[in-house]
Amino acid sequence: MLKLLLQLTKNSLANGPSPNVFNNLKCINCSRSRSFSKKVADHINEGRKRNIRSTLYYVTAAGVVTVGLSYAAVPLYRMFCQAYSYGGTTAIGHDASKVETMSKVQHKPIKIKFNADTAASMRWNFKPQQSELTVCPGETALAFYTAKNPTDTPVIGISTYNVVPFEAGQYFNKIQCFCFEEQLLNPHEQVDMPVFFYIDPEITEDPYMEYVSEITLSYTFFEAKDGLKLPLPPHMKA
C-alpha cells in the first residue's frame, strides 16, 4: 500500500493534480475503515457470546445450590438455632445432673405465656391448653398444647418455636417437646403435646435479664412437604 501511495504521489507531481488520485485515496480509506469496523464488530459479538455463556453457567449453578439448600433448610436451621440460641430458640439438650441439683430461685418468679400459630396452608387446629404459668428459675414445669386434624385426609405437620425476649432463649431449657419432628394426624384425630421445661437459675445472674419478668413460648405448625423451608426469625433476615 505504501508503494502505491508513493507512485500516486509521483504521478501527481509530474502530471499535476488528478481526480483519480483522490478517488484512489478515498477507496483505500473506505476499505481500511470497513475492515476495522468488521474487526470491532466481531470482537463485540465474541464478547457478548462469552458473557451469555458465563451468565448461563452462573444461573445454572445458582439453581442447583438453591434446590439443595431448600431440602437441607429444616435440619440446618434446627442445628444452627439450637447451637447458638438464635431467634429465641432454646439451646439443644440439657444437663441432667443440673436438673437434679439446681436450686429454685424463689425471689424471681417468671410468668410464661404460651402462644400457638399455624401457617396459612396448615389445616390443623392448634392451641395451648393453658394461657400462662408462673414458674421460678430452677424448677421444672409441664405445659400442654392440643392439635387436631379436622379434615377427612391424613395431614403431617412439623413445628418451629421461639422464645421472646430473644435473649431469654439461652436460659429456657426444654427437657421434652414436639418441635422439628413430623407429626402425623389421621382424619379427625386429636392429640395432646407436652412441653417439659425449666428456666436456668443462671438467668438471675445476667444483668440483661434483670427486669425480665415475662417470657413467651411460641410454636408454629406447618404442613410437612418436600422442600419445605422454615422461616427465619425477623432479626436474622436483615
UniProtKB/TrEMBL annotation:
Pfam family, one: CtaG_Cox11
Keywords carried by this UniProt record: Membrane, Transmembrane, Transmembrane helix
This protein's record includes keyword NADP: no
GO MF entry, a single one: copper ion binding
Transmembrane segments: 56-77
Gene3D superfamilies, sorted: Ctag/Cox11 (2.60.370.10)
Keyword Transmembrane helix: yes
InterPro entries found in the cross-reference section: CtaG/Cox11_dom_sf (IPR023471), Cyt_c_oxidase_assmbl_CtaG (IPR007533)
Locations listed in the record: Mitochondrion inner membrane
Bilayer disposition of the protein: Single-pass membrane protein
GO cellular component terms, semicolon-separated: mitochondrial inner membrane
Role summary: Exerts its effect at some terminal stage of cytochrome c oxidase synthesis, probably by being involved in the insertion of the copper B into subunit I.
Cross-referenced PANTHER family: CYTOCHROME C OXIDASE ASSEMBLY PROTEIN COX11, MITOCHONDRIAL-RELATED, CYTOCHROME C OXIDASE ASSEMBLY PROTEIN COX11-RELATED
Subunit structure, as described in the record: Interacts with CNNM4/ACDP4. Interacts with RANBP2.
Protein name, as recorded: Cytochrome c oxidase assembly protein COX11, mitochondrial
Native source organism of the sequence: Phaedon cochleariae
